[in-house]
Specification:
Elements: H1 5-10, H2 16-26, E1 32-37, E2 40-49, E3 53-61, H3 70-84, E4 88-94, H4 99-105, E5 109-113, E6 117-122
């Protein structure tokens, strides 16, 4: 939650009480997996599913391991898993998040945006 604070503060969208309540209701333990590199935790991600979509709800990597292809590999893996289930992949992220470039490069297209977030979708051929 603290990693999002600077971005949300810059957007004048930080409300500590709302963030804590959202945090407690949003994170589902069974949907969260740790990312490990060389035997140590370097991040985590959360993927939820609907009948038609796999949604990357959270993806966080420590600053020191960003830019090494780990995030791209994780997202590609989720895209492959979604394709096997005939599902698209959706995600949302806060304006200003540099991962926007990665998502676009991997084939995600922006479907909408609001005051704080950009919403994207990767459409698998079979899921259409």
């Amino acid at each position: 939650m603290d990693s999002m604070k600077p971005l949300l503060m810059a957007l004048d969208a930080w409300n500590a009480d709302e963030m804590e309540a959202a945090f407690r209701s949003y994170f589902v333990r069974d949907e969260i997996k740790l990312v490990m590199l060389d035997g140590r935790d370097v991040g985590w991600f959360q993927v939820s599913q609907t009948d038609t979509d796999m949604c990357i709800d959270q993806l966080y990597l420590l600053q020191e391991v960003r830019g090494q292809g780990i995030g791209a590999a994780l997202v590609k893996s989720i895209i492959s898993e979604a394709a096997e289930q005939d599902k698209d992949v959706c995600l949302s992220f806060v304006h200003g998040n540099p991962a926007h470039t990665l998502y676009h490069r991997l084939g995600f297209r922006q479907i909408s945006e609001d005051d704080t977030k950009i919403h994207m979708r990767y459409q698998n051929e079979q899921a259409s």
